[in-house]
Q: What sequence folds into this?
């Protein structure tokens, strides 16, 4: 339904880190180039810092893809562990296993043998630790010790620590000075600006098969950049809901009003204020002042009519009941419809049916 309405092959604003949708804007290109350069030049220890939702994990997948067969890689994202747990995870990712009773010294000895074999094969060994802000202090100290695997001429292990700003806070502690000194490059991903937001949206739409005129007008893009804080994950959520609301109203383009209505429903105002990138005072007026509440309610009512038609000729549809009972501020549609006399589905099944119909 929704995909056909916009001429899309697939959902452009998904929630998984699909490398196909990776948009290498200036910031991401610079970060990826720095990671590749740091590894190729044998710097040994790199750190990637990014706010949550910036596409850090997707960028790391792209890095591993580019390394290809030139390196033996270990990618860990379950990092809430101590030193021994981390070592066991490394060995398991290598397919070597680790016995419950095997001590840390034995595990390190086996890992050292793997590193020597990779050196003889002229391949790099790259350990990527995602969400590294979750590592316990003992595990971070163990990571520093792992960086000691080296010969007089080169590092045997290259380590990429990737995490949220809390990782930078941890590394800034006086107790972490030795680890911090080992890190050759600190690479950052910063939020997108207005122009980058527009390019990001257009890229994802093209990958999903869209080829028409712009779906989001200039005002919508500007509002999206502001209210999302320039965070790709927030942009995805906003765009998905904006497309859904516009579809419910039978519209083919998204303007600033729709973005504001969706932002109010998702309550992203606090995030925009924290980032200092909030939209202008005119654009930031409550949706109610622009008369958007009623239109939003009617739009979602149309969506419900398409998904949950009347039970029989002449019967009142769930959407019709919704449009009669929604007050000035939009209430959760599922809760209102659930109170109707002809309601047959639970709120959970409504969400499932809505999702399935949007996909297909």
A:
């Amino acid at each position: 339904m929704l995909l056909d309405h916009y001429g899309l092959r697939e959902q452009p604003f998904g929630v998984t880190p699909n490398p196909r949708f990776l948009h290498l804007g200036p910031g991401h290109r610079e970060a990826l180039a720095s990671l590749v350069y740091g590894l190729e030049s044998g710097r040994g220890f790199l750190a990637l810092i990014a706010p949550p939702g910036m596409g850090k994990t997707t960028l790391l997948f792209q890095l591993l893809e580019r390394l290809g067969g030139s390196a033996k890689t270990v990618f860990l994202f379950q990092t809430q562990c101590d030193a021994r747990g981390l070592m066991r995870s490394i060995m398991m990712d290598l397919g070597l296993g680790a016995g419950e009773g095997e001590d840390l010294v034995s595990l390190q000895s086996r890992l050292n043998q793997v590193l020597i074999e990779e050196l003889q094969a002229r391949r790099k060994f790259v350990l990527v630790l995602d969400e590294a802000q979750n590592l316990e202090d003992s595990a971070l100290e163990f990571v520093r010790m792992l960086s000691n695997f080296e010969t007089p001429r080169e590092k045997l292990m290259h380590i990429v620590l990737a995490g949220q700003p809390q990782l930078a806070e941890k590394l800034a502690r006086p107790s972490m000075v030795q680890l911090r000194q080992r890190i050759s490059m600190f690479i950052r991903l910063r939020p997108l600006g207005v122009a980058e937001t527009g390019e990001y949206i257009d890229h994802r739409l093209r990958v999903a098969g869209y080829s028409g005129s712009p779906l989001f007008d200039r005002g919508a893009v500007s509002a999206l950049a502001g209210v999302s804080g320039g965070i790709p994950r927030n942009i995805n959520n906003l765009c998905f809901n904006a497309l859904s609301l516009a579809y419910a109203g039978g519209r083919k383009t998204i303007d600033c009003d729709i973005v504001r209505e969706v932002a109010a429903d998702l309550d992203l105002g606090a995030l925009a204020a924290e980032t200092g990138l909030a939209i202008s005072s005119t654009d930031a007026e409550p949706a109610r002042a622009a008369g958007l509440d009623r239109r939003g309610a009617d739009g979602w009512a149309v969506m419900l009519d398409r998904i949950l038609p009347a039970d029989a000729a002449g019967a009142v549809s769930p959407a019709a009941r919704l449009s009669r009972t929604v007050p000035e501020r939009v209430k959760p549609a599922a809760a209102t419809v659930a109170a109707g006399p002809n309601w047959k589905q639970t709120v959970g099944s409504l969400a499932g049916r809505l999702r399935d119909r949007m996909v297909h």
